[in-house]
Amino acid sequence: MAKKHDNITTLKLEKETKERLEKLREHKRETYDDIIRKILYVLNTVRDEPVKAKAVLEFIDEKRKRMFETDNEHQDNKEQQKLQTNIPEKQRKIKK
């Protein structure tokens, strides 16, 4: 029986290439394999259906924008909570 990791290989990438791949992520847990497969899918699609390929790229771009906005909102909330925990209880009650 083949082990799961028997089908995995290692690729060497320039740091710039890795950074460019990371910019194509639609969500944080997306693997490099997922990203490369997505790129290959778009490349294959663009040959036969350029309009569909463009729509896929626009969809990916929208998901990335939403992910970025969500990350920023989450970070802002964390920073706000951190600030609140640094304020003594008496002062927090006064500010409300």
Give the uncertain stretches in residue-range form. none
Strand percentage: under 5%
Determine the mean pLDDT.
Answer: 81
- What is the CA-based Rg, rounded? 21 Å
Helix content: over 70%
Described by the principal axes of the CA atoms, the overall outline is extended
Structural class: mainly alpha
Number of strands: 0
SSE order, one letter for each helix or strand: HHHH
C-alpha end-to-end distance: 64 Å
Largest sheet: none
Number of helices: 4
Layout of secondary structure:
Layout lengths: L14 H8 L9 H17 L1 H37 L2 H7 L1
Helix pairs in contact: 2-3
Give keywords:
mainly alpha, extended
Explain what you see.
The chain has four helices and no strands. The protein is mainly alpha-helical and 96 residues long. It has a domain at 50-86. Helix 2 runs antiparallel to helix 3. The longest helix is centred in the C-terminal third of the chain and has 37 residues, at 50-86. The radius of gyration is 21 Å and the shape is extended. The chain starts with 14 loop residues before the first helix and ends with a helix. The model has no long low-confidence stretch (mean pLDDT 81).
